[in-house]
């Protein structure tokens, strides 16, 4: 079976974290006018979709993932008129805007919750999840919050607990209530009418939860709810929908993204990400096991077949910077950033570029926990150090995996505060901005930026990148990740050295050539691929061959 072609199959998405992208009014916080001023930059990069992290009205307990009005813009980001201008100006440049839809929970300052907490018989009470205290007054069960502590918060006014999988200012909506479903659908349709290009659905695999049975992710009611959402909102529109699904296996991903099931276009899966978290704990980082990493990436490439669609990403606003995580942020920063880009962008699926990735921005290592702003980082630092973990150990883990690594302001140039703002930014800039910034990248024809630009162009011009089959090569090798993509016209051989060491390889006959059509490389282009090949540190290239 072939997939019916969709516009998002060969799209490349750029994720903007508005707070950290560009500050037009110099209040230290990025905003919508800042984004508008950089649309030409994004057009030049070649992306045709922007995923906008939340810009709705919010008390910003979790930087906008706690929404108090879904149909208004947070004043620090601008106004609804700015949003309309962004949509219009993006459209002029053939760029679609994907909104971040956060409907597992709202803010506790959302009017629904404000009403709900007033009394047990308030009409909005059942919009949220309430339970009686256990005898003695303690929380109904042991369920923990993803941001630390209990998932239950006692509410004095009515003497019951409400459920929150994230912070206590993010009460979970009760998706068993048809009124909640209806309100959310109505709001989604309102955004669709504004001309958006789709939705990224925040932690959407949590909405089918059955908490009394201890089920949070992938609950039994999840898929019927999503099919109903599809039918009531975007199903008959040509939109990109991507679900954030931490618990997805390839089988589960097919449930979400098989077009015949009418749910989403694709999902984000995190199996490759959590490999460097010991026992799933991001505050216990462990080194990358490349063979395991290759196995996971290969599994996802092969197993979705034509019954689902991959999204391809290395980092986002919740994850460390890719060049720091899987590459080398020192001597081989440029080479390794390009290698990682090639590895990802020549796989099958829709690639996502997180702001600053295209110039090789790195993690940050602030000396003091007081310089961090992320609620998750601060909560866990406190919890773990109170429970006996040494502050230095916890700070090292924060340097490795804190979400603030991705959230330091974007580096536009080498002026004060990286050209992000002339005011003190809400989170300090990474001190390496004088070397790593957009202005410098644009001036250097061999920069990481132009490497991304080239990869994006290649995807638009070579169908084998979009639809070709995927076959791993050197499967058991512990330093290189290589694969061949094939369609009726071409074979595309992609070879990547994931280490700072030289690697000598014996090439199989089928991949040798005297007249290589090298379409991208991070050192000089290869003309010949003989029996033996020596790869330089982090060397990466792709060669196009006849089928
Ligand atoms: C996932 C988002 O990506 C993250 O930033 C947020 O904190 C949680 N969902 C809660 O909305």
Oligomer: single chain
Q: What does the radius of gyration come to?
A: 23 Å
Q: pLDDT average, as an integer?
A: 97
Strand-residue proportion = 15-25%
Could you explain how this protein is built, in words?
InterPro entries: GH (IPR017853), GH13_cat_dom (IPR006047), Glyco_hydro_b (IPR013780), O16G_dom_2 (IPR045857), SusG-like_C (IPR056300). The protein is an alpha/beta fold. The chain has helices at residues 32-36, 39-45, 80-92, 111-116, 178-193, 222-232, 250-257, 290-303, 322-326, 333-345, 375-386, 391-401, 404-407, 438-443, 448-461, 463-467; strands spanning 13-16, 49-52, 56-57, 69-73, 96-101, 130-131, 152-155, 160-163, 198-201, 240-244, 266-268, 277-278, 281-285, 311-312, 350-354, 469-473, 480-486, 490-497, 503-506, 517-521, 532-535, 540-546. Strands 11-10-9-5-2-1-15-14 form an eight-stranded parallel beta sheet. The chain has a five-stranded antiparallel beta sheet with strand order 16-17-18-22-20. It has a three-stranded antiparallel beta sheet with strand order 6-8-7, with no helix packed on it. Helix 10 runs parallel beside helix 15 and helix 11 runs antiparallel to helix 12. Among the domains are: 111-163, Alpha-Beta Complex (Oligo-1,6-glucosidase, domain 2), CATH 3.90.400.10; 178-309, Glycosidases (TIM Barrel); 467-546, Golgi alpha-mannosidase II (Immunoglobulin-like, Sandwich). The longest helix is centred in the middle third of the chain and has 16 residues, at 178-193. It is built from 16 helices and 22 strands. The relative contact order is 0.10. Strand 12 (277-278) and strand 13 form a beta hairpin. It is 27% helix and 18% strand. The protein binds 1-deoxynojirimycin. The site of 1-deoxynojirimycin has 9 residues, from loops.
């Amino acid at each position: 079976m072939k997939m019916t072609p969709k516009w998002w199959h060969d799209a490349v998405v750029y994720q903007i974290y508005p707070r950290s992208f560009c500050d037009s009014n110099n209040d230290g916080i990025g905003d919508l006018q800042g984004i508008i001023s950089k649309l030409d930059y994004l057009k030049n990069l070649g992306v045709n979709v922007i995923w906008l992290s939340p810009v709705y009205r919010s008390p910003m307990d979790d930087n906008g993932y706690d929404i108090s009005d879904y149909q208004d813009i947070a004043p620090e980001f601008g106004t609804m008129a700015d949003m309309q201008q962004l949509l219009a100006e993006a459209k002029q440049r053939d760029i679609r805007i994907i909104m971040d839809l956060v409907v597992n929970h709202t803010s506790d300052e959302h009017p629904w919750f404000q009403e709900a907490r007033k009394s047990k018989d308030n009409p909005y009470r059942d919009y949220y999840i309430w339970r009686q205290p256990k005898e003695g007054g303690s929380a109904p069960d042991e369920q923990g919050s993803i941001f630390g502590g209990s998932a239950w918060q006692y509410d004095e006014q009515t003497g019951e607990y409400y459920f929150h999988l994230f912070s206590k200012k993010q009460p979970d909506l009760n998706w068993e209530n048809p009124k909640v479903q209806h309100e959310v659908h109505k709001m989604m349709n309102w955004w669709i009418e504004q001309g958006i290009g789709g939705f990224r659905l925040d932690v959407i695999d949590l909405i089918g939860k059955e908490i009394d049975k201890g089920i949070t992710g992938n609950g039994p009611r999840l898929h019927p709810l999503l099919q109903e959402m599809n039918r009531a909102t975007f199903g008959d529109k040509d939109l990109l929908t991507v679900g954030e699904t931490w618990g997805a296996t390839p089988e589960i991903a097919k449930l979400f993204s098989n077009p015949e099931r009418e749910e989403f276009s694709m999902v984000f899966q995190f199996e490759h990400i959590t490999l460097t978290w010991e026992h799933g704990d991001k505050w216990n980082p462990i080194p990358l096991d490349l063979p395991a990493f290759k196995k996971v990436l290969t599994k996802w490439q092969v197993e979705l077949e034509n019954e689902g669609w991959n999204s391809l990403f290395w980092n986002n606003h919740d994850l460390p910077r890719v060049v720091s995580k899987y590459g080398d942020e020192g001597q081989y920063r440029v080479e390794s950033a390009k290698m990682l880009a090639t590895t990802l962008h020549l796989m099958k699926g829709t690639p996502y570029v997180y702001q600053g990735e295209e110039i090789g921005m790195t993690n940050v290592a602030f000396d003091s926990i007081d310089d961090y702003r992320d609620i998750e980082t601060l909560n866990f630092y406190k919890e773990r150090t109170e429970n006996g973990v040494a502050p230095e150990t916890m700070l090292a883990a924060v340097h490795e995996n804190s979400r603030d690594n991705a959230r330091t302001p974007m580096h536009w140039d080498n002026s004060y505060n990286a050209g992000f703002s002339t005011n003190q930014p809400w989170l300090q800039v990474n001190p390496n901005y004088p070397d790593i910034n957009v202005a410098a990248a644009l001036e250097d024809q061999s920069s990481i930026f132009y490497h991304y630009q080239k990869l994006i162009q290649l995807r638009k011009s070579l169908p084998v990148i979009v639809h070709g089959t995927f076959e791993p090569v050197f499967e058991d090798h512990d330093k290189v990740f290589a694969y061949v993509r094939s369609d009726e016209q071409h074979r595309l051989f992609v070879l990547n050295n994931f280490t700072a060491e030289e690697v000598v390889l014996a090439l199989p006959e089928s991949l040798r050539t005297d007249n290589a059509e090298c379409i991208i490389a991070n050192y000089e282009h290869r003309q010949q691929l003989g029996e033996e090949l020596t790869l330089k540190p982090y060397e990466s290239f792709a060669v196009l061959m006849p089928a």
